[in-house]
């Protein structure tokens, strides 16, 4: 059985593809290879995957309904990991239309195609950003998420609601995964870790919002992939205990579920920067700033439902994850001893 991964040239998509290939799966990767960040990094990820005979790649823009439907009909995938999206809270302030096309329209087209071919399970990526103005910690998927604070978060919440509607109307098994600050090797260059690393090595000041006090539930890429693989292999089922007079947003009378995937141990941005400094052997020049629009002061994931139902537990401490990410960054960019070669 072929697993379809949308966004296969992306950070999480490529890592998931590698893991599934290692498990003996056949993988069909889809990506539009846009230039939100340097496509050379996307091509480098794909180069690694293309060495595997069980991997097939097609360049496709999921915002194109006809092309998406045609691809599904040709391959008829039964398990789909829909990870393609326009990421980034800050970019959504400047280019909101990008998020409607890449997140909302593309997800609608995927849902229509899944309905058309009768796929057995659709797993899609959501985000901790949907919790928005919610300050009850830890964030639980059973909490309401009706107050997003960025266009990015609003589009991801829209995708969750569309997915539930399709699950209810057409009996499609759908699982949404809210990712919490994913980081690690092969990550996007706009991620804070790599922005900080580049500027620290160049001797440039780094912008530290909320004076470094906000906390994030950083989640290492391998731990995220482990959670996705476990969920992908078990289609969502209706919750027999779901009640319409006390609706739980994380479950449904339809075959629809929502889970958090987090690292389980939030750390301050200040501590995160300290670990980057330690692994670079350089001190950062910090430009301390207030919390910026669209950001939230803290994230913390309740992962107990995923742990109880799938045995998921993150295993990578932040100290180990940052060290691995910095080691990859230096190797990928040809940096030795803190200096460019």
Structure, described:
This protein is of the alpha/beta class. 41% of the residues lie in helices and 17% in strands. The protein contains eleven helices and 15 strands. It has helices at 11-22, 39-50, 65-75, 89-94, 96-117, 151-170, 192-202, 221-232, 269-280, 304-310, 318-332, and strands spanning 2-6, 26-31, 55-59, 79-82, 121-127, 174-179, 182-183, 206-209, 215-216, 219-220, 256-261, 267-268, 286-289, 335-336, 339-340. It has a seven-stranded parallel beta sheet, sandwiched between helices. Helix 2 (39-50) links the parallel strand 2 and strand 3 (55-59). Helix 1 (11-22) packs parallel to helix 2 (39-50), helix 5 (96-117) packs parallel to helix 6 (151-170) and helix 7 packs across helix 9 (269-280).
Features:
11 helices, single chain, 341 residues, 41% helix, alpha/beta, 7-stranded parallel β-sheet, two-stranded parallel sheet, 15 strands, globular, 17% strand
Query: Whole-number radius of gyration?
Result: 20 Å
Proportion of strand residues: 15-25%
State the oligomer: single chain
| Residues in helices, as a percent range | 40-55%
Counting DSSP E segments of at least 2 residues, the number of strands comes to: 15
Q: What distance lies between the first and last C-alpha atoms, to the nearest angstrom?
A: 45 Å
Q: What spatial order of strands do you see in the largest sheet?
A: 3-2-1-4-5-6-11
* Biggest sheet statistics: 7 strands, parallel
Number of helices: 11
Q: Structural class, from helix and strand content? A: alpha/beta
Instruction: Note poorly predicted spans.
Output: none
Mean pLDDT: 94
Dominant shape: globular
N to C succession of SSEs: EHEHEHEHHEHEEHEEEHEEHEHHEE
């Amino acid at each position: 059985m072929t697993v379809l991964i949308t966004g296969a040239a992306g950070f999480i998509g490529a890592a998931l593809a590698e893991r599934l290939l290692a498990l003996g799966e056949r993988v069909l990767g889809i990506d539009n290879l846009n230039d939100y960040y340097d496509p050379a990094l996307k091509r480098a990820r794909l180069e690694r995957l293309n060495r595997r005979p069980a991997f097939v790649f097609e360049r496709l823009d999921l915002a194109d309904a006809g092309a998406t439907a045609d691809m599904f009909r040709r391959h008829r995938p039964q398990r789909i990991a829909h990870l393609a999206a326009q990421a980034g809270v800050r970019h959504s302030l400047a280019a909101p239309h990008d998020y409607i096309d890449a997140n909302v329209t593309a997800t609608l087209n995927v849902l229509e195609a899944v309905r058309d071919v009768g796929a057995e399970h659709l797993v899609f990526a959501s985000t901790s950003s949907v919790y928005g103005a919610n300050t009850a910690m830890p964030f639980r998927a059973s909490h309401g998420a009706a107050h997003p604070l960025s266009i990015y978060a609003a589009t991801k919440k829209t995708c969750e609601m569309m997915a539930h509607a399709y699950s209810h109307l057409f009996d499609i098994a759908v699982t949404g995964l809210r990712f919490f600050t994913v980081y690690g090797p092969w990550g996007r260059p706009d991620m804070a870790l790599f922005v900080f690393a580049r500027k620290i090595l160049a001797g440039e000041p780094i912008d530290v919002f909320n004076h470094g006090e906000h906390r994030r539930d950083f989640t290492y890429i391998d731990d995220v992939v482990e959670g996705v693989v476990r969920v992908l292999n078990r289609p969502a089922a209706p919750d027999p205990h779901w009640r319409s007079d006390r609706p739980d947003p994380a479950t449904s009378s339809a075959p629809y579920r929502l889970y958090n995937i987090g690292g389980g141990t939030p750390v301050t941005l200040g501590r995160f920067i300290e670990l980057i400094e330690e692994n670079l052997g350089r001190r950062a020049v910090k430009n301390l700033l207030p919390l910026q629009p669209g950001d939230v002061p803290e994230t913390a994931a309740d992962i107990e439902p995923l742990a109880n139902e799938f045995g998921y537990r993150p295993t990578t401490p932040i100290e180990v994850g940052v060290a691995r990410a910095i080691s990859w960054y230096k190797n990928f960019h040809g940096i030795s001893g803190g200096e460019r070669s």
